Each structure stands twice: as structure tokens, then as C-alpha cells.
Design the sequence.
């Protein structure tokens, strides 16, 4: 029922996804039975693999998370997540209210191990392919251990979602030397380097390395990640606007712009953010599809959920989380001399 | 002597700057006398306004700041900054080693008030004009008071460099509500809002507001600022590369690209970062010009230094710094309930 378009997008997206997914995949559609039945009327063929679960109520797109939590029980979103907890579904996909989905998922599914909050992860296009980037806003204050948890979750996610056997991982910092950055990031660096976790950790990366594609997974705290992501989105919007005005600056430029239009359209497609963002660290798979999703976007989010469900993703995260205490013990304590040098700041 | 090209760029840049600067402006050129004299040979007219100060030694572009500090005395960079301290010069401009300039300036000129380190400030092109953005890397750990100091310095700089009588100021955060973000940023927000500093403070801004030009001055800690700046630079490079490949994807697109070329060149010019970055918070004006500077870039950096020198910039910073203790007392203490809510993170 969620997203800007509700069942008119979600139902045909589910039908579209079924066409390419293995026979073993089927859907529970939670929401208003009459509306969903009507939307399904045109797709008789899919009936055997789609089951409707009626829900009386819906969480509004602008509802505050706290309110969604109070009155959430029995809504389509609540039931969707609860079906995962009860083992009726392997993964949940929603285009509904992000804050509500985050809060309800955390309450119903609970976090893996000592994790406190689901991380928001995004997939960035890069010069070499795609990079997984997290946390982009859920966890504003992060100690070293939290950053290492993000590395564990991001690595497992990248393997499951992008099919790379051994993704490389980098920690976002203001320079590449060991002594750069604040204490949390240097401590996480030590744990990842010395802690013998089965992760291909490449060390510190800088802001411009995200789009260079230097590593497969870029890890940072939710404050820095959110600011970096939005800064890049802003830069993109700025450039698109400037480009449009540069290309309308005269007759020749105009003709040029018209001729270049198809190429520019492909360019824009390549830059548009992927529609699906999983909530990482939950005991269960929850994929958030953006609210303005088209049929194609929602079908793609379903595909991400299926990829995660068919991978060893959750078990890998749990296994590596169990190794974390040993990794923490393994990593040598901070060297005060290095700490002192680091307080000199980034003087590049 | 600094930068990738040394006197072959700096000397003609100084001559070029003299042509547009008032008669009262003159230069001390610190460095190897023979080299500078040779470079000046083609510019007889400028001789009366340029004085050569011979320096035996030069700080290398790849020298570590600590080493530069130890063996810096008597180098052209050291003498340039010392001339400011001694009142022989009003401002210093260098295209040399950034870390060395930062460290030497801090040692020789010392910081204003209780400031600990010079802030690195950059000027971003925006949809509305330009935005001053700081700190972009010098101060990795920042408490609330440091962030307020950046606001004071950035505001005075923006007025001096960009001629706006009352620049607006925003604090970078992951959302615009009071309860968003970590403790330091929320405390700085309270001080700027309630502390009665003579600053037009507009509240929190987000990453994409930098290039939107929502405020004239965007304030953040050196870690976040460095990551955001480099992320935007990376996004720009990514987009330029993608665009080039999109525009070479076929005969029509190619013709389009050729016709659009002058417009695209103007676009690239608009996006190239400004060559001059002042070190803010020193008892004296020091402007860093980027190492790869052209003659035009260095002349522009000289212009920035002159603008700062002719403004009330330093006195304004000092006045507002003196008001800071009262502002800190004025701002009410943090509300624990709000703190609690904030730990829920950015769940947008």
C-alpha cells in the first residue's frame, strides 16, 4: 500500500518480477484486499504465486516514526515485517514511510548481536562499477566497534547484491596515513587491519575515492555518510542545472544539445540512484524501495530482496559478528604518540 | 619559489596583479635573487613596486610539516610569513607546500584568541553564486565552541572576500530539526541561535544545500568538511568522465558534442575550484594558492589577499571572538529530552 502510487505500482511490479524469478519464489501482498484484487484482475496468470493478506489500515507516508510505532499494529507495513519474523516470508519489500519501516523493523525483528540500529546503505555508481556506501544517516554517533560492524554488514551485502566473491573494504577518512583522522576511525582501522576478520580490508579511503571505485565497500559513520551522500547529490543537481544552461547558450550549442540528447539521457540513467536500499543488521531481510518508485523500480527492489534471501548474507554477518570480540582483543591498543601526531589534523 | 612552476609563474602573476591594483600596493618577493631578477627582466615597468628579498633556501613541495618547521628558518616561505609578523607586509601569498605553510604560519603568527588551529576555507560555486565552506580539513575534532569560531571567521571572510554586507550562516547537519545530529552540532546550534552574536544565523543545512546556495557560509568540522568537499570533487570528476563517454557514443552525439563544446568549456570553467584558500584565524593574512597555479590563478590569489587586507576582516573576527564567552553563557544548557530523541538518529 506504500509509496506515492500504492498497489497501482506494487501489484504490476510483483507480476513483472515473477516473470523472471524462479518458480519457487512467491509473494504475500499485505494491504486492502479489494484494491489489490482489483489491481490483480488484469494478471490472471500470476494468481497461483500471489497470496493476498488483508490489512485494515495503512501507515501514512508523512506519519512520524513514533506515531507509526504506537498505532502500527495491524497495518500493512507491520504485517509485512511480522510475516518475516514468523517465517512466513523470507524478505520484506516496502515503498512506504522510511522512518516508520526502520522503526517497526527494528522493534519486530530486533538487531543482530550487539548492533543497536539498522544501517542505511546505498549503492553509488563509480568509474569502475558500483560501490556500497554505509551508513548514510541512521547512526549519527559511531564508535570504532560500530564502524567495524558496518564493514562486516556492508561486505556481506555487497557479495550478496553484486555477486563479487571477495569485496574490498575501505574506511572513509581525511587522508590515507595511519595517523590521520579522529580516534574512532583510527581505532576501527586498527581492528580491521589487525583483527583477523575474514574481510579484504584495504585501509583508509578519501571522499573522492567513493566515485573512483577504489574499493567495493566504503564505511563511515551516519553523520559523515549522510553529509557526503547529500553533498554528492547536490553537486550532481548543480552540474545538471549548469549544463542545461550552458547548452542553451546559443544556436549552435542548442543544436549540439539536441543532437547529444540521447547520450545525455543514458548518462542521467546511469547516475540515478538505485531504487532499493536494504536496512542492514536486522534479524531478517527488509528492503526499502524509494517512495516515488515506478513499476520497474519496485520490481528491481524485489530482485534485490530475492538476491539477499538466496545468499548466505545473514549467516555471514552473524558469523563475523561472533568473531568481533576476538578481533577487538587482537587489535593492539592505540599508540599515544600516533594519537598526538593525529591531533595535528589533516594538513595536506 | 613555491608551487609547481615557481618564479616563472609567481613573478609574471605579481606583475599582472600590479596592473589592476591601486598604486599603494607593492610586493616583497622572497626567494632566490638571481632567479627572480631574471624573471623580472622582461617587466621593467614593475620594478618600482617590487622589492626582492633574497632567501638562500626553499621548502620542498613534498617536505613533511615537522621537517619544514625544523629547517624552515631562512627559507623563502618562512621569511614571507615572518614579514607579516614584523609588519613589513600586510599579507602573505604562497603556492608552496600547504602543510608547511600551515605549520609555519601557526608558529610565527599564532592564533587569534583561544583558537587552536587555522581553518581551511574553500569557496564553492552554487546555483545562486558562491558559498564559503569551512573547515575543509585542518581541524578533525571539533567541539561546539570551535564550530562557533568557524562561523565567526567564515562570516567575516565572506564579507571581505565576496563583498556581502551581512552574509547568512548555516551549520551542516543530517536534518533541519533542532534534535537532529550529534551533541557538538546541536550545542553549536544553540549558541549561534541564542548567543546574541551579530551573525545572521539561519540554522541547520544539509549536504545538498551547499551547492544550492541556501546560505553564504556553511560551517562544519574538518573531518566532515574534508570528506564532503572531496566527495563533491569526486562526483564532479565522475560526471565529467561519464559525460565525455556519453557524448562519444555515436555520430550524432559526436556532432552534438562538437557543437556544444564552447558551452561545455564555460561550464567547466565555472566549476573549477577557486585557486586561493586563506588560512583563517591567524594573527595576519596568509593566502594559500594551489600548487599547480597558473599566472592567472596566482594573480587572483593576490587579489584575495588584497581584498582581505583592505577589509575590516581581522578586527571583526577579534571583536566577535571577544563576545564568544558571553554567547556561551547566554545559550541555555542542552535539554536531556531532546538529546534522547536525537539518539534515535536520522530516520528520514
Sequence:
Amino acid at each position: 500500500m506504500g509509496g506515492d502510487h500504492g498497489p497501482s505500482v506494487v501489484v504490476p511490479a510483483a507480476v513483472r518480477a515473477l516473470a523472471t524469478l524462479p518458480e519457487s519464489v512467491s509473494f504475500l501482498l499485505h494491504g486492502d484486499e479489494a484494491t489489490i484484487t482489483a489491481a490483480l484482475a488484469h494478471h490472471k496468470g500470476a494468481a497461483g504465486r500471489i497470496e493476498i493478506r488483508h490489512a485494515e489500515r495503512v501507515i501514512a507516508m508523512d506519519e512520524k516514526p513514533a506515531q507509526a510505532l504506537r498505532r502500527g499494529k495491524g497495518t500493512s507495513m507491520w504485517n509485512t515485517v511480522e510475516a518475516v519474523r514468523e517465517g512466513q516470508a523470507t524478505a520484506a519489500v516496502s515503498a512506504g514511510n522510511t522512518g516508520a519501516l526502520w522503526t517497526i523493523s527494528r522493534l519486530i525483528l530486533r538487531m543482530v548481536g550487539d548492533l543497536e540500529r539498522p544501517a542505511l546503505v546505498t549503492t553509488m555508481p563509480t568509474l569502475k562499477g558500483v560501490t556500497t556506501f554505509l551508513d548514510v544517516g541512521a547512526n549519527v554517533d559511531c564508535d570504532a566497534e560500530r564502524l567495524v560492524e558496518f564493514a562486516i554488514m556492508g561486505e556481506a551485502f555487497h557479495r550478496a547484491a553484486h555477486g563479487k566473491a571477495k569485496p574490498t573494504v575501505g574506511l572513509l577518512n581525511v587522508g590515507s596515513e595511519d595517523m590521520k583522522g579522529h580516534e574512532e576511525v583510527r581505532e576501527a582501522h586498527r581492528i580491521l587491519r589487525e583483527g583477523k576478520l575474514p574481510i579484504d580490508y584495504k585501509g583508509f579511503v578519501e571522499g573522492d575515492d567513493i566515485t573512483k571505485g577504489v574499493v567495493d565497500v566504503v564505511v563511515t559513520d551516519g553523520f559523515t555518510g549522510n553529509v557526503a551522500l547529500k553533498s554528492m547529490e547536490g553537486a550532481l543537481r548543480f552540474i545538471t542545472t549548469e549544463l542545461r544552461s550552458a547548452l542553451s547558450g546559443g544556436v549552435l550549442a542548442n543544436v549540439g544539445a539536441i543532437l547529444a540528447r540521447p547520450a545525455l539521457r543514458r548518462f542521467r540513467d546511469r547516475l540515478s540512484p538505485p531504487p532499493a536500499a536494504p536496512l542492514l543488521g536486522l534479524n531478517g531481510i527488509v528492503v526499502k524501495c524509494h517512495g516515488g518508485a515506478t513499476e520497474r523500480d519496485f520490481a528491481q527492489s524485489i530482485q534485490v530482496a530475492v538476491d539477499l534471501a538466496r545468499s548466505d548474507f545473514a549467516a555471514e554477518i552473524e558469523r563475523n559478528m561472533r568473531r568481533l570480540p576476538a578481533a577487538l582483543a587482537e587489535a593492539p591498543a592505540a599508540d599515544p604518540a600516533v594519537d598526538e601526531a593525529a591531533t595535528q589534523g589533516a594538513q595536506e
Remarks:
- The mean pLDDT of chain A is 87.
- The CA atoms of residues 136 and 226 of chain A lie 4 Å apart.
